[in-house]
Amino acid sequence: MTDKEINKELFLKFFTNKKNLTIMDIGTYDGKDSIEFSKLFPKSKIYSFEADKRSVEIFKEIAGKTKNIKLIQTALSNIDGEIEWYASKSDTRRHYDFQKDWSASSSLKKPAEHLTLFKDVAFTKLPKIKSTKLDTWMQNKHINHIDIMWVDVNGGEFEFLEGAMDTINNKVDYLYIEFTKVDGRALYDGAPTKDDIKTKLKGFEELGVYNFKGNFGNLLLKNKIFKND
To answer: pLDDT tens across 45-74, in order?
Structure first.
């Protein structure tokens, strides 16, 4: 990997002198990232989005009592209504003793290379679940600026972006987003590469790649309209 490596500690140093941040944790799963943000920036407002009901149960156990974290139970995509959902499950994986099943790999996209690379994880196609465009959700919310948008949507990056372009282009300062297609291999059908995401977000500049695993990684972008922040 030739891209500039940037870890979370280095990224968060950008906010050393800021206290009242607005943060979105999209695809929050168990809420651990939200909790970390809450501890670092206790006066901030954190909006955590999660669609899988099993993950919501875990979130409520782990992060549900944190006062400055608000849970929103919906998938974020390019559809206001309902979407198909591929629920992950595993007999071997658990993050917590109380966890009933492995929901961390669930996605609105059909699994592809994920089935080959992680053979202990299976998927079940579920009846449709609730979906919202972020741009729709933002209406009448009086959120004028989003300092950090943290996105982990397991291959559904394009669908998420398509439903959030107005918000992202005009209100998001830093965007951290996973990519799950590398060198022609995609964990999920139709997942974009890092370069696909950059092409979609022409108003952003790349700062680096975090936690690259060979088959997926996380891209950190900075909105050019907030260049001097």
So the answer is: 999 999 999 999 999 999 989 999 999 999
pTM to 2 decimal places? 0.94
Distances (CA, A) of 204 to 169, 181, 225: 8, 20, 8
Question: Nearest-5° angle of CA 95, CA 99, CA 103?
Answer: 75
Query: CA-to-CA distance for 109 and 182, rounded, in angstroms?
Result: 16
How many CA atoms lie less than 13 Å away from 206 in the CB half-sphere? 16
Cα–Cα distance, 150 to 148 (Å, whole number): 6
What is the predicted pLDDT for the residue at 229? 56
Provide the token pair at 186: 């995609």
pLDDT(80) > 80? yes
Structure tokens of 212? 């690259």
Contacts of 10 (CB under 8 A, 6+ apart): none
d(CA 99, CA 97): 6
Task: Find the length of the chain.
Answer: 229
Structure tokens belonging to residue 219: 């891209």
Q: What is the average pLDDT score of the chain?
A: 93
Q: Is 12 helix (H, G, I), strand (E, B) or coil?
A: helix
